[in-house]
Task: inverse folding
């Protein structure tokens, strides 16, 4: 087996880093579900070879993202967090998988550096007041009062002034959500550019790479 899973600017990422991640709860999740009741070895007894290959490619992407994030933290002068042990890997929320894709969701759960970078990106985002107000105006259904919800009020047609939570009451929460969304968009943009410096070893290509027969586009 190749001793490295990938090269980042010519520097090898040892295969052992991928193997170690595959032994964690997050690494066992693979491309889909994030919570399982039975132990990982039992789940994999009847795993098809193609699924095992795809899980390794998926895990390589998570480990590569961690390495890229560590380098980005160093370049930005951010403190690079200590390596976490498998036991301390955070659980991956199903909503994060839906919003981010399983690779990025697992990377953020696995990598303190990725989380530090995302936090730094979030602090750099600017959300104008007009954007916050526009979100409120376009999503009135999210801000109905409990009583209006019980009565089945249509927020875009028959809602009275008292049926909708006041803008000043929900403005801070909307601003947080928009900052979070902007930070995630910036993180995706950073990752797309950073991956240009990566060369993958055979068997560690991206799961969606059409150059190998097991490729798939579910991230």
Result:
């Amino acid at each position: 087996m190749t001793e490295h899973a990938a090269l980042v600017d010519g520097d090898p990422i040892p295969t052992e880093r991928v193997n170690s991640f595959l032994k964690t709860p997050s690494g066992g999740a693979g491309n889909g579900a994030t919570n399982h009741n039975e132990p990982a070895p039992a789940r994999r007894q009847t795993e098809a070879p193609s699924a095992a290959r795809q899980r390794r490619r998926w895990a390589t992407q998570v480990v590569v993202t961690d390495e890229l994030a560590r380098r980005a933290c160093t370049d930005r002068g951010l403190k690079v967090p200590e390596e976490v042990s498998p036991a301390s890997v955070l659980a991956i929320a199903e909503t994060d998988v839906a919003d981010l894709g399983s690779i990025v969701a697992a990377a953020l759960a696995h990598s303190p550096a990725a989380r530090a970078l995302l936090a730094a990106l979030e602090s750099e985002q600017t959300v104008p007041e007009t954007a916050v107000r526009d979100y409120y105006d376009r999503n009135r259904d999210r801000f109905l009062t409990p009583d209006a919800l019980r009565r089945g009020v249509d927020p875009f047609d028959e809602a009275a002034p008292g049926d909708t939570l006041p803008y000043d009451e929900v403005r801070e929460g909307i601003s947080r959500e928009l900052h979070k969304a902007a930070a995630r968009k910036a993180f995706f943009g950073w990752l797309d550019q950073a991956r240009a410096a990566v060369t993958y070893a055979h068997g560690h290509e991206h799961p969606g790479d059409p150059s190998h027969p097991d490729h798939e586009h579910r991230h």
Q: What stands out?
A: The first strand starts at residue 4 and ends at 8.
